[in-house]
Amino acid sequence: MKRFIGLFVFVFCLSMVADHVALAQGRGRGGRGRGGRGGQERVQRTPEDRAKAHVKRLDKGLELTKEQEDKAYHITLVFNKEMESMKDQRESLSREEMRTKMTAARKTMDSDLQKILTDEQKKKYAEIKQTMADRRKERRDAVSEKRKKRRASGENSRPESID
């Protein structure tokens, strides 16, 4: 009887440790972390962080001067703060209103960035934007194709929730 209790306690402790490790890694019972990224949690970056990253990407492709970097940072910071405030309004705005506001904000940011670029940089910027748009379209098409294949094979695209 003592052996049975000792074995039970050992197995129980082992399962508790395994569960604790899985939860510490961001994996619950489903094996995936929050956001379905296999344990990778999406990090919420501040508008300032996003603006710095945006300027870094612009500088890499356009070779900005220090003055252009500063102006681009300010422009993208204003844009990111506007996006942040729109996220807070999600509940009160319709999807179409959100899309309209976001599109207007992007156009404003784009036109403000265009004002600080040289003619050569404007050409490169247009090429970069087109490349990014093509990549987004490819990803969208790939996701759409996966969904079509799942539907055709009878798989659910999303598992049903367990309540």
Automatic annotation (TrEMBL):
The UniProt annotation puts the region (Disordered) at: 26-50, 129-163
Locations of Basic and acidic residues compositional bias? 39-50, 129-145
Alphabetical UniProt keywords: Plasmid, Signal
User: Where in the sequence is the signal peptide annotated?
Assistant: 1-24
Q: Which domain of life is it from?
A: Bacteria
Name this polypeptide is given = Periplasmic heavy metal sensor
- Species per Swiss-Prot/TrEMBL record: Fulvitalea axinellae
